[in-house]
Amino acid sequence: MHLQPVDTGWIEVICGSMFSGKTEELIRRLRRAQIARLNVVIFKPKLDDRYHAEQIVSHSDQRMESIPIEQAAEVLDRIPKGTQVVGIDEAQFFDSSLVSVCETLANRGIRVIVAGLDQDFRGQPFEPMPKLLAVAEFITKILAICVKCGNPANRSQRIAKSEDRVLVGATDAYEARCRRCFSPEPVPPSRPVDSPVDES
Ligand SMILES: [Zn+2]
Fold it and tell me: What's the half-sphere exposure (Cβ side, CA atoms, 13 Å) at 81?
């Protein structure tokens, strides 16, 4: 971000595949806001309780307290007066009203930082991320490393046998893969699931 807006809210989106470090980047920005003594509130979807029910947790085990919610509209009901920065993790798990919620917050002068998967396991745009990307002032797309060939990876390869669009999981269910190594159909893992993964 080269020019920081003044006296206005805005929307920042951090997107990418699984294991690209989206939550880590979200936490980095929110921590810096806290250090600047800004009032920060963080939300996450209730359905994502992989690591902790009330914290957002990066794969590198950085954590921040958050409010678990089911519907995007709950954000508007639950932000305390005086909130200056709102962080939202795993945005792809929210309904499409998240877009208008983020716009409402930004229009009220709040800095909104949203992290989420931009593609589903078939490589298709994962709503509501495409619309958020369209209305955001700042977009950061980060890449993982393809586990098969080492190229920059922007796809989440499903390695669990499920056709459900929402399958909450990590190394047991997905691998980061590049365009060349990605398949829109679930495939067997490229290595034993229990082996250590470099998720940096
Ligand atoms: Zn590859």
Answer: 0
Q: Give the distance (Å) from ligand 1 centre to CA of residue 151.
A: 5
Taking residues 12-38, report their average pLDDT.
Answer: 96
Measured between alpha carbons, how far is residue 146 from residues 33, 51, 125, 163 in Å?
32, 23, 19, 22
Around ion ligand 1, residues with a beta carbon closer than 5 Å are: 146, 148-149, 151, 178, 181
Nearest to 23 by CA among 105, 93, 71, 103: 93
Instruction: Compute the distance between CA of residue 117 and CA of residue 92 in angstroms, rounded to an integer.
Output: 6
Stated pTM of the model: 0.90
Q: Residue 172 C-alpha to ligand 1 middle, in angstroms?
A: 19
Contacts of 64 (CB under 8 A, 6+ apart): 27, 30, 31, 42, 55, 56, 87
Q: How confident is the model at residue 199 (pLDDT cuts 50, 70, 90)?
A: very low
Domain 10-144, CATH class in plain words: alpha beta
Is residue 111 classed as helix, strand or coil in its secondary structure? strand
Beta bridge partners of 145: 152
The yes-or-no answer on residue 90 being catalytic is: yes
Band (57; pLDDT cuts 50, 70, 90): confident
Average pLDDT over residues 64-69: 94
